[in-house]
Amino acid sequence: MSDFPIIHTERLTLRKPTYDDVAPLLELTQDEEVMLYYGMEPFKEEKQSREEIDWFLKIWKEGTGTRWVITLKGEDDFIGEIGFFEYEKKHRRAEIGYKLSRAYWRKGYMTEALVGMLDYMYENIDLNRVQALVDPRNDGSLRLIEKQGFQRDGLLRSYEYERGAYVDLYMLSHLREDWEARD
Q: pTM of the full predicted structure?
């Protein structure tokens, strides 16, 4: 297994998750607004955050995904996380997900992290398709990924059961040809 990939962008470093990230991940996932459309209940205890870090490390070790901790360049403090999972080598596709602390919203950080991750994925993994499931009510997330060329493939009706109700999700995709055609 190769070393965990580190991604550097203009203002950010995307690095390997560690157990030092348990407390800030817990704080992030306890924020109701951050978790509103994420498809998970806000975390209640540190054990859940530790299990999330375990999953981040497991998917990397298994080769089915990679989850990075987002930090400001030159600092090591956790401000969010981004990554891909459910990598299907046969079909050359993977799904992405991300979370960012509210204090860093609307500053272009998630756009920068997403572009860095997509560049890494298309340059280093034999991918044809990157996909995302997004709640139609999550305008910020839809704007974020559509700005990067993701296309809406369709609406998955009553796709998940969250917080006592069924929710629809958009399936969006970004193809290698979209990445190769970027400006």
A: 0.94
